[in-house]
Amino acid sequence: MVLSASDKSNVKGLFAKIGGQADDYGAETLTRMFTTYPPTKTYFPHFDVSPGSAQIKAHGKKVAGALIEAVNHIDDIAGALSKLSDLHAQKLRVDPVNFKLLGQCFLVVVATHQPAALTPEVHASLDKFLCAVGNVLTAKYR
Amino acid sequence: RLLIVYPWTQRFFSSFGNLSSPTAIVGNPKVRAHGKKVLTSFGDAIKNLDNIKATYSKLSELHCDKLHVDPENFRLLGDILIIVLAAHLKDFGPACQATWQKLVGVVAHALAYKYH
Predict the structure, then answer these.
(1) Contact yes or no for A133/A81 (Cβ under 8 A)
(2) Across the interface, which of A107, A115, A121 has its CB nearest the CB of B22?
């Protein structure tokens, strides 16, 4: 799976529209993920996972930041997220299936807030991008 | 969107004519008609929430024996449906999404249930 030039342009364009709301999108993504897929909470036993919690806000901001970093270095996502990839492989070891779940929830957040921007083509590009990010984060698992 | 986001799903629709681009897919009348069929079928599940397996029993056999569809495709379709709902409905909060993800999961399971 390779990001084409138009995929990259679609993703950059979408994130430009999201702008400063990215942190909120991150938090909402996590809330939706914890609500929709309860087993994902097993990775956050130390968290207050109630919607709007300070920890969800902070972590949502982290997740959004990582996605933005990937968008800004979309020609070399592996390079941009290398340290995060190490972290997930050595310390966090989140089962790979969960990245798809997070991705699905991010797509839903974008769909609810930017329905006009999420055309079928942009949807496809964003889905590919989120897969690519997930692949990078699990690349060093074994 | 299923055919655009996961293009390999087009393998089941070689009789649908032009699926060569997102524009072609969006404008394809066979795609539209099939979308109507699928959503109408979802409506049947909602009318029979206590008995979804029975509701889909024959369809499950059809998808296995005649259509030869990998059940993974039902999960892909379910996820896409959720995103479409999210884009169109005014109120699609976390609890609503969670419920609908469960429903599409149950439908996917029911459609796969008679596979052998």
Answers:
(1) yes
(2) A121
> Which residue is closest to B97 within chain A, CA to CA?
A36
Helix intervals (H) in chain A? 5-18, 22-36, 54-72, 77-80, 82-87, 97-113, 120-138
ipTM of the shown complex? 0.82
Q: What's the structural domain count of chain A?
A: 1
pLDDT tens profile A111-137: 999 999 999 999 999 999 999 999 999
Q: What is the pLDDT of residues B19-77, one digit of tens each?
A: 999 999 999 999 999 999 999 999 999 999 999 999 999 999 999 999 999 899 999 99
pTM metric for this prediction: 0.91
Tell which residue, A19, A77, A110, A138, has the closest CA to residue B92.
Answer: A110
CB A106 within 8 A of CB A64: no
A112–B4 C-beta distance less than 8 A: no
CA B94 to chain A, closest CA, distance in angstroms equals 5
| Banded pLDDT at A1 (limits 50, 70, 90) | confident
Nearest CA in chain B to A114: B87
CATH number at residue A109: 1.10.490.10
Domains, chain B, in order of start with CATH, read 1-112 (1.10.490.10)
Domain of residue A121: give its range: 5-138
Chain B contact probe: residue of A2, A112, A128 with most B CBs at under 10 A: A112
